[in-house]
Amino acid sequence: MRTIENQAAEDAVRAILALASLDEAATLQGPSGKVIVMSEKEHKNLMRAKNNAEFFAMIDEAKRQVKEGKVMYSSLEELQAMME
Question: Considering its fold, how many domains does the chain have in total?
């Protein structure tokens, strides 16, 4: 374990946060792995891309099921009759 002075730690954190505020990710290598610091904007963009990919995967799966005939078709009247 390495010990650093408080001022040096504060300066390092400020530098990392400055990078993140400029929409640049900062990667820190620690003994247990990498830590990535990024801006909230960049994080939201990554999460949006991840969610879009998951949504499109669900659509692709639904298309596959339709092609394989693994769906059930019902009219509105049939569905209403099921509810009674």
Answer: 1
Burial classification of residue 39, based on how many CB atoms lie within 10 Å of its CB (0-12 exposed, 13-18 middle, 19 or more buried): middle
Predicted confidence (pLDDT) per residue in 54-79, tens digit:
999 999 999 999 999 998 889 999 99
- Within a domain: residue 32? yes
pTM, two decimals, is: 0.54
Q: Show Cβ contacts of residue 71 under 8 Å, excluding neighbours closer than 6 positions.
A: 65
Q: Residue 33: enclosing H or E segment and its boundaries?
A: strand 33-37
Q: Is residue 55 part of a domain?
A: yes
